[in-house]
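User: Second chain of the day. Same drill as before.
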Amino acid sequence: MATAYSSASQGEREALSRLVQARHDDPFRWLGPHEDGDQTLVRVLLPGAERVELIDAVHQVLAEAEAGEGGIYCARLPRGSRYRLRITWPDDVIQITEDPYRFAPLPGELDLHLFSEGRHRELARVFGACPTAIDGVDGVRFTLWAPNAQRVSVVGDFNVWDGRRHAMQRHEGSGIWAIFVPNLKAGERYRFELLDRDGQLRHKVDPLARRTETTALDVSVVASNRPFNWHDHAWLRRRDASDIRTAPLSIYELHVLSWQHDHDGNTLEWDTLASRLIPWVADMGFTHIELMPISEHPFVGSWGYQPIGMFAPTARMGTPEAFARFVNACHGAGIGIILDWVPAHFPADEHGLVRFDGTALYEHDDPREGFHPDWHTLIYNLGRNEVRGFLIASALEWLEHFHIDGLRVDAVASMLYRDYSRSDNAWLPNIYGGRENLEVVDFLRELNDTIAERCPGVMMIAEESTAWPGVTAPTAAGGLGFTFKWNMGWMHDTLSYMSRDPLYRSWHHGDLTFGLQYAFSEHFVLPLSHDEVVHGKGSLLSRMPGDEAQKLAGLRAYLAFMWAHPGKKLLFMGTELGQYREWDHDRELDWERLDEAGPRGLSRAIADLNRIYVEDPALHVCDSEAAGFSWVVGDDSTNSVIAFLRHAEPGKAPLLVVCNLTPVVRHHYRIGVPVMSVWREIFNSDSVFYAGSNQGNGSALHAHPEPSHDHPASLLLTLPPLSTLYLRQGDWPT
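Assistant: Same format as last time:
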């Protein structure tokens, strides 16, 4: 063995030359300490250094390293010596540090085994960039999966982004690369530099980064491992002990970047958003906020639905700790948080997951499986253990680390069908020749079973727009295991109905009532989401026919119908303001609309609907049971009138709901009721309090002994124009 670089053998020189060229796949074989008889040979690669000394714990010089070509330095010490490096850089800059190549950086064999099987549920605590200590030295261990790369380095401010300085060690069996960089702390900026399978240089952000950079989206940031000081333990206990399927669930869907801006027109940071949003949502009576994707994403115009950072909240709003404070504050105010989560696809930005190590690592290689024609994005290869485990670990990161109360899984329909949005010759069938994506089915079941086991109070919501059976059925019964499914059919039919001129609604009465034929086939959320107020559709208010007063009346009546209909509720931000223009992600909401009486009345009506919905068990306890609903008037298409009863458990008073969806007052309209008693009008969407015309029935009505609609008694009602009424039986027998 040579005593210094100058006497190295030809083979050693060739290996060291490849290290200098950043083309060697096993730097730990040559760099760091290596025992040689009774001595330790130390090699370091420090391009640009002017002098390198090996020192002891009290900074006494043990040896001065001999300089070689390209920044290679070599020195010999007595066998087993502990040393540090004292490096002199240009301008007499002195750096004292540990040698990263004297530390064994790879995770444990169990971690590597679980990763390869796709069953490591805490990836971000072990892989990626993890502040840790090895041999009593603090630093950061960087770990990356890139099985087909020829060489991987971590680069950052700490090594002037030089890929020669911290080339990583490969674990052959798992395709994992790792290095421990001593003396680094949370807050360091970094990314990975890969020499891919074909010899091309690639710069990639960390797929497991838990923090990102605000100014450079192609940079990751080392996140702190310090536990957050949560104060929501009582909330979590109540959540985990409850059954959300029988509880009220009223969701305010939110795009955090455009809800409200500061005085300079800038996006709010998490703390300021909390101080403004939480009181608003609490006053409006919503039980939950749903955040459109906040996973880090390069293009704001994707609304977050093309994420790259599946473990990191966007840096546009602040740090991960600030996001945790936001969640903590919401829970403290009694408000749950649902997060949109996107496992269906990812964007093709070069610094992201696309052909990560020169191969289709995260995506399918064949574009008939791996390219999404609708969004020009790439589809995860969920038949691969490591990819499946990566996504499940991402879901758990949000639920366990950030205490999120539920995930709304985006674009499930696009995942389930291999021919989704594809022509006949542009997709590949499954092994049985069918169009169902069997790998996705297995993934979704594993995802939902894992979350049900680890996070029993959390809800999983599928955006699924087809008739796929059993989306919310248990996996043990052959279902997908979701808690809820968006009812896209209800949304489409009823919104189409309400957008029609009332003169023609009688011909489309089935659009209003058809949803009740399948309302109990799944556990549904009724969504009036962001998708209904973009791409030229206009706002919900603008889609109502008539002048502004009629538009507001129609929207109030529609929302009251929705709040009474079986299924949980979701409303996109801005509707409560009576916003006329459609949503624009670059602008804040039109808050000035609240200066006008009509929008203020609409906002007040929604708040009252939420209050009644939460207080009255008839509106939520039996949401998914046919026994929770019964028609009273379902066939009066001529007058565009419907009436139905919502029921809680036996012995509890039902709620009578009556809708008149024409701009005509209907006097003395007889409606059958099950009990001969007093009925009280507890909500009237036409009330003067909501800026309506104030037609209605007063506070109390007495039922008549005249049978009607298969009930033993009836009420004679005044039905206000474009209205929905709620009537509660006043002295229901106990």
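Residues 129 and 447 are 24 Å apart (CA to CA).

User: Great, on to the next one.
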